[in-house]
Amino acid sequence: MSSSDEARLKNARETVDSLFDLSQLLQTGLDKHTLSICVGMIEAGANPDTLAALIKELRQENEMLKGHAE
Question: Where are the annotated coiled coils located (predicted)?
């Protein structure tokens, strides 16, 4: 791996770490892996507001399913 690739990888990790810290402060409940997927989707052109609404909807459906399983 070249030094520029290593620098990009280090920068990406630092960015995810910073985003994760912010995510924790905002109590989003997203882990680093999920947060990285969301960032990738946004970078690929996904609408952030739509993505956030989808995550909220999926969480609500998950809670409803958990309630029915008990």
Answer: none
Determine the Cα–Cα distance for residues 54 and 6; give it in Å rounded to an integer.
Answer: 34
Nearest to 19 by CA among 2, 6, 36, 40: 36
Count of other CB atoms within 10 angstroms of residue 25: 8
**Predicted TM-score (pTM) of this structure:** 0.77
- For the chain, the first-to-last Cα distance in angstroms comes to 50
Contact between residue 23 and residue 30 where contact means Cβ atoms under 8 Å apart: yes
Condensed to tens digits (0 to 9), the pLDDT of residues 22-41 reads 999 999 999 999 999 999 99
**Cα–Cα distance for residue pair 30/70, rounded to 1 Å:** 25
Q: How many helices (H) and strands (E) does the chain have?
A: 3, 0
